[in-house]
From TrEMBL:
Statement: the UniProt record of this protein carries the keyword Signal: yes
SUPFAM superfamilies: Prokaryotic lipoproteins and lipoprotein localization factors
Organism: Shewanella youngdeokensis
Name of protein: Outer-membrane lipoprotein carrier protein
Keywords assigned: Chaperone, Lipoprotein, Periplasm, Protein transport, Signal, Transport
Compartmental location: Periplasm
One Pfam family this sequence matches: LolA
Similarity comment: Belongs to the LolA family.
Signal peptide: 1-22
Keyword Signal carried by entry: yes
Subunit structure: Monomer.
Function: Participates in the translocation of lipoproteins from the inner membrane to the outer membrane. Only forms a complex with a lipoprotein if the residue after the N-terminal Cys is not an aspartate (The Asp acts as a targeting signal to indicate that the lipoprotein should stay in the inner membrane).
Length: 208
């Protein structure tokens, strides 16, 4: 799995109305509730522990309450992540492979699904602090794959997300051209399995 996909999945738990850590969490929750949905372009830069740029990319990002998320990396290599409200679909066109997991699995694997997932118990696993219009979210469990996530706003516009992993890599996402999601764009959050792809079904309920 390349850095873009790994860091995007790691981003999934912050995209949620937030219930944790007093004033900072309450302020972040208010902003996220006010942003019922959004669509934006993003540019991504990944740097290593020595601040050396190891990857760059760009694509389209969208979210909608509750529990819907769209992440389409368009360059340099295409990949797609869609959370449809129940499941998270990860599509790699080059490998002709689709992976699918429960939304709760994706959230427990990382802190960015929280931007679209309202769960007080889940948010109790994170510490939140605020500096200006930026919020830093750190997992209480220091063994988590992502060591820190920062989300920054310009009033009620989400304009930056920064993820740091345990290996010291930092992925910086800058959002631009932000709009609401038009009714005709609701299908962004519906994943249609392409023909002739391998499917890796990791959903817990699928084994029951």
């Amino acid at each position: 799995m390349n850095k873009f996909i790994a860091m995007a999945i790691a981003a999934l738990p912050i995209l949620t109305p937030f219930m944790a850590n007093a004033d900072a969490a309450a302020s972040l929750k208010m902003k996220l509730v006010a942003i019922d949905n959004l669509k934006a372009n993003f540019s991504q830069t990944v740097t290593d522990i020595n601040d050396k740029v190891i990857q760059t990319g760009e694509g389209i990002f969208a979210l909608a309450q509750p529990n819907r998320f769209y992440w389409h990396l368009t360059a340099p290599d295409e990949s797609l992540i869609v959370a449809d409200g129940t499941d998270v679909w990860i599509y790699n066109p080059f490998a002709e492979e689709v992976s699918v997991m429960d939304l709760d699995q994706a959230i427990s694997a990382s802190p960015i699904a929280l931007l679209v997932h309202a769960d007080e118990q889940t948010w109790s696993q994170y510490q939140v602090s605020q500096v200006g219009q930026c919020f830093e979210i750190e997992p209480i469990d220091k063994e988590a794959g992502v060591s820190e996530v920062k989300v920054c706003f310009n009033d009620l516009k989400l304009n930056q997300m920064v993820l740091k992993d345990q290996q010291g890599n930092t992925s910086n996402f800058v959002l631009s051209g932000q709009t609401g999601i038009a009714a005709k764009e609701a299908d962004l959050f519906k994943f249609v399995i392409p023909a002739d792809v391998d499917i890796d079904d990791q959903r817990l309920k699928s084994s029951n």
